[in-house]
Amino acid sequence: MSSLRVLETINPAKVLLLGYASYVVLGWFFLSLPLSQSVPVSNIDNFFTATSAVSTTGLVTVDPSLSYTFFGELVILFLIQLGGIGYMTFGSFVILSTRHKMSSFRTSLTKSAFALPADFEIGRFIKMVVIFTLVCEAIGAIALYIIFLGDDVDGALWSAIFHSISAFCTAGFSLNNNSLMDFVDNPMLNFVIAALAYMGAIGFIVATDIWQRLTGKQKYLHFTTKIILEVTLWFAVVGTILLFVIEPSVQSMPPWQRLMASFFQVMTASTTVGFNTIDIGGLSAAIIMLMYVFMIFGASPSGTGGGLKSTTLAALLGLIKSTLKRRETVRIHKRELSQERLQIATASFAFYMVVLTAAMILLLASENAAFDVILFEAISALGTVGLSMGLTGDLTVLGKLIIILLMLMGRVGILTFGIAMAMHDESPEEEKDDDLVV
Q1: What residue segments make up the domains of the chain, in order of their start?
Q2: Annotation: CATH topology of 1-112
Q3: Which of 141, 157, 163, 434 is deepest in the core (most CB within 10 A)?
């Protein structure tokens, strides 16, 4: 039996998990080579960096620019690109380019990875994913090169390419030891990074949908696209206003810079891009709580970002509203949601809370840090955000392993990971047993 036929007998969720895990191991191997390291880096730190890159998280236990050579940085960037687009996208693109047809298994795998609506054409979608990604990253790199060149940044070209790919893939990896804090007053850099992050985070579904609408191939935007754009807008507007008004650490800035800094921190949490222009550890408790919410739900389906997704939040809010109004059906904007979508949303949130609770118990036992700092780290890892209140570099070995697992779960998708790890279901005889008494 060929390897492909063996894969086709495995649940797509397991294949996705194995695929991402294989890229982590491959990245770990290359980062462990002396050729990749400027200074000796431990195996656990190389493993942590590889996982963070593939999962497009951005949490780091060592400074990438100081610890790795140009080759090592190139490996990290390659892993970010693979994780951002998805490991199966490249293979699908090659297959489509040669024979213009995908197997039912690869189609199922693609829908599992990207959470596509049932009526999306997979072939055209995959091609647009690759083209859209490369075009956005190229434009972003050119814009950042001009900005860095004007600010006399060392290695402006490489830094522009690295940060453009990292931003679009919502990875948050930076060649600067303080992320983008040196550019808090640079409106052009803030705009370019935010544009790249939003283009990646709102999802390929939205990009494809808008393009087909603009070219006249369809009359209306899909319902999913409308919800994604609406939630993304609300996150940006409400979050920016709250941070601008409440956060003490930005009060001393000029009004325009204060507004820009407020927007950027909200953008970086909600898109899960993970860059920051102000000190995250210095944020007030109220804003940290707000960041929790943005990081938990994060970006949108089929995008490069993590989190439970904006559509999950919309479904949960719709469920709450319908329950309070005693409705038998759940509707959003007069549109009834299917039972399957509601089940996915509620199961994702419930499983997320179970995993977060278990991780917090272990991290609180292993790490010497405040509760809010540890919680922020765990949510950031599980949402593949990459923001930190300063704990990452001080993690114990056990703490690093826990965060590594959370980052991998976040990249695969919390529910997809659960499905991949689930035991075999009950037999028909067991299903006939008595019902649960509550």
Answers
A1: 1-112, 113-418
A2: Helix Hairpins (1.10.287)
A3: 163
d(CA 147, CA 128): 28
Secondary structure E strands in 20-105: none
User: 433 exposed, middle or buried (CB, 10 Å; 0-12, 13-18, 19+)?
Assistant: exposed
Tell me: the pLDDT tens digits for 270-298? 999 999 999 999 999 999 999 999 999 98
State the CB neighbour count (10 A cutoff) for residue 90. 15
Phi, psi angle pair for 305, to nearest 5°: -85, 175
* Region at 125 (left for phi over 0; alpha for psi -120 to 50; beta for the rest): alpha
Report whether 133 contacts 209 (CB < 8 A). Answer: no
Alpha carbon distance 79, 161 (integer Å): 14
**Cα 437 to Cα 51: distance, rounded to the nearest angstrom:** 43
C-alpha to C-alpha distances, 329 to 39, 332, 341, nearest whole angstrom: 60, 10, 12
- CB 201, CB 300: distance < 8 Å: yes
From the list 436, 428, 406, 425, the residue with the least C-alpha distance to 51 is: 406
